[in-house]
Amino acid sequence: MKELIDPSNLPKHIAVIMDGNGRWAQKQGAARVFGHRNAIKAVREVTEGCAELGVGYLTLYAFSTENWARPRLEVQALMELLVQTIRDELPTLQKNNVRLDSIGDLNSLPDKCRNQLAEAVGQTRHNTGLNLILALGYSGKWDIIQATQQLAREIKAGTLQPEDITEGLLNERLATQGRPDVDLMLRTGGDHRISNFLLWQLAYAELYIYDEVYWPDFRRTHLYEGILSYQQRERRFGKTSEQIKVGE
Ligand code: IPE
Ligand code: IPE
Ligand code: MG
């Protein structure tokens, strides 16, 4: 399937809602955390798949602001898994020239997570391949609020006028600053919703939902399937199809 992908029309930025771990585990009579533990292989698959194809940016929704409200033991297990995974995967990230970064309210994370993350981000910062961004303690509304607060502080300090606030400036204050908008958003687990992920950055993203695949079963072929669907679409950005065809 990989050979069908047109390398000249790759999405620059792919974002993924990695959903369905709990249901994957429950389906086989296991506890939800069993699903989280089995999700790591899928993370590796999507990361390596994107790195091999030459996709520029991959943002993975790993833990949302709202996920803090889950049962305490599940949250604890997820945080421990996070520390462990970042530590274990660091050599592979280096080998694949992947640059790791994160978006989200890092202060909401346990110290151990924040430190492990900072360590991996620091060690991979000179890598020049795929930019892998983990959304942790992230939500789209949180992002827009924190950006608005920064702008309000600048206005209060007198360094910014309200009319200076443009799409470009707000872009620079969002956690995703400097990265292109999302071209393709993938979601496993069959739910057709955004769940407070990148709200602003998804404005013109193409959506691809896997109705039959839970995240732990996600493999490179699923990534290729999503990209092929993306390549068959006409992105009009509000224009007419005729305008797009003549390249206006
Ligand atoms: C996604 O799987 C992982 C996180 C949200 C951390 P879920 O844990 O949401 O699994 P389901 O959707 O309940 O099956
Ligand atoms: C979205 O999944 C968040 C992550 C994958 C990290 P959820 O399972 O939290 O989403 P809802 O609650 O079903 O919308
Ligand atoms: Mg879910």
Automatic annotation (TrEMBL):
Subunit: Homodimer.
SUPFAM superfamilies on file: Undecaprenyl diphosphate synthase
InterPro entries: UPP_synth-like, UPP_synth-like_CS, UPP_synth-like_sf
Class of this enzyme: transferase
GO molecular function: ditrans,polycis-polyprenyl diphosphate synthase [(2E,6E)-farnesyl diphosphate specific] activity; magnesium ion binding
Source organism: Salmonirosea aquatica
Similarity annotation: Belongs to the UPP synthase family.
Cofactor binding mode and count: Binds 2 magnesium ions per subunit.
Protein name: Isoprenyl transferase
Keywords: Magnesium, Metal-binding, Transferase
